[in-house]
């Protein structure tokens, strides 16, 4: 008969409830349900949704605050910080403003990222994801048709982020959000420059439609190809515009001599 006193029994690892709440809220942040700048639901409501006591939730919020993932704002409310996204974006945003040659590198990186994201979205998107992407494409159509530059650039960013979210990869969600936030002004300027070319607006809309239809049709390879073709078109068109601008400036300098 075995000696029960000699049996090695490991103590139970009992996780504190507040740590479980922290883990749940971190998961919601990682998957993009709570994004940078979002206000968390009021304490009473959030405690009810999680099925926990308010003191345990309060303790969890304090731990998230200590990690820099949430912060309290004057006037009330707890908000998700940009900590998960800002590390990548912060140094590059300023560099883009002072080093125009980086724009080509950014487009090359976007081609790789968005091609992969589109393919994964086609393969993994839920019906809710497809509904969201479809609504954003419809908004993009209206903005294009009405020539609303600000709205077009805003919805363009949201459309690409919705694709990243639909890829269901936490790193892609946050890397895309960080990149698109960093490039928001850049995207606006690109669209402004592209719209100055007569037929480009319709071509851009057709390219977004091709991505959307491929994702909706669960055609991964086609979605990747459409996303890459979109970035290639933007790159080629902007390069042509820059070269034309250089030629005009050169011609003006010669005329002034």
How would you explain this protein's 3D organization?
The protein is an all-alpha fold. It has 2 domains: 17-80, Orthogonal Bundle (Arc Repressor Mutant, subunit A); 84-256, Four Helix Bundle (Hemerythrin (Met), subunit A), CATH 1.20.120. 74% of the residues lie in helices and 2% in strands. It contains 11 helices and 2 strands, in the order H-H-H-E-E-H-H-H-H-H-H-H-H. The longest helix is centred in the C-terminal third of the chain and has 37 residues, at 220-256. It is elongated, with a radius of gyration of 24 Å.
Brief overview:
It holds the Pfam family GntR. GO terms for molecular function: DNA binding; DNA-binding transcription factor activity. By secondary structure, the protein is an all-alpha fold.
Record the SSE blueprint.
Blueprint lengths: L16 H14 L12 H8 L3 H13 L3 E3 L5 E3 L2 H16 L3 H23 L2 H20 L2 H18 L3 H13 L1 H12 L4 H17 L3 H37 L1
Antiparallel strand pairs: 1-2
Helix pairs in contact: 1-3, 4-8, 5-7, 5-10, 5-11, 6-7, 6-10, 7-8, 7-9, 10-11
End-to-end distance, in Å? 107 Å
- Give the amount of beta strand, in percent: under 5%
Radius of gyration: 24 Å
Unreliable parts: none
Helix-strand category:
mainly alpha
Record the strand order, biggest sheet.
Answer: 1-2
Work out the count of structural domains: 2
Domain HTH gntR-type: 15-83
Pfam families: FCD, GntR
GO molecular function, one term: DNA-binding transcription factor activity
Protein name: Pyruvate dehydrogenase complex repressor
């Amino acid at each position: 008969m075995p000696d029960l006193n000699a049996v090695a029994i490991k103590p139970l690892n009992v996780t504190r409830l507040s740590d479980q709440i922290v883990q749940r809220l971190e998961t919601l942040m990682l998957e993009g349900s709570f994004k940078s700048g979002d206000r968390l639901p009021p304490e009473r409501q959030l405690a009810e949704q999680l099925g926990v006591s308010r003191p345990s939730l309060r303790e969890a919020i304090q731990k998230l605050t200590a990690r820099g993932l949430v912060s309290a704002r004057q006037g009330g409310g707890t908000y998700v910080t940009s900590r998960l996204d800002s590390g990548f974006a912060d140094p590059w945003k300023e560099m883009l403003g002072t080093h125009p040659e980086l724009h080509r590198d950014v487009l090359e990186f976007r081609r790789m990222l968005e091609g992969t994201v589109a393919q994964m979205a086609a393969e993994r998107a839920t019906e809710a994801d497809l509904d969201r992407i479809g609504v954003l494409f419809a908004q993009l159509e209206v903005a294009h048709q009405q020539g609303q530059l600000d709205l077009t650039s805003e919805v363009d960013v949201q459309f690409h982020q919705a694709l990243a979210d639909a890829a269901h990869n936490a790193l892609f969600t946050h890397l895309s959000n960080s990149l698109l936030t960093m490039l928001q002004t850049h995207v606006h300027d690109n669209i402004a420059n592209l719209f100055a070319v007569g037929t480009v607006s319709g071509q851009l809309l057709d390219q977004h439609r091709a991505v959307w239809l491929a994702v909706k049709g669960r055609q991964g390879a086609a979605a990747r190809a459409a996303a890459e073709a979109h970035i290639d078109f933007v790159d080629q068109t902007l390069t042509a515009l820059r070269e034309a601008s250089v030629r005009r400036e050169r011609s003006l300098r010669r005329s002034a001599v």
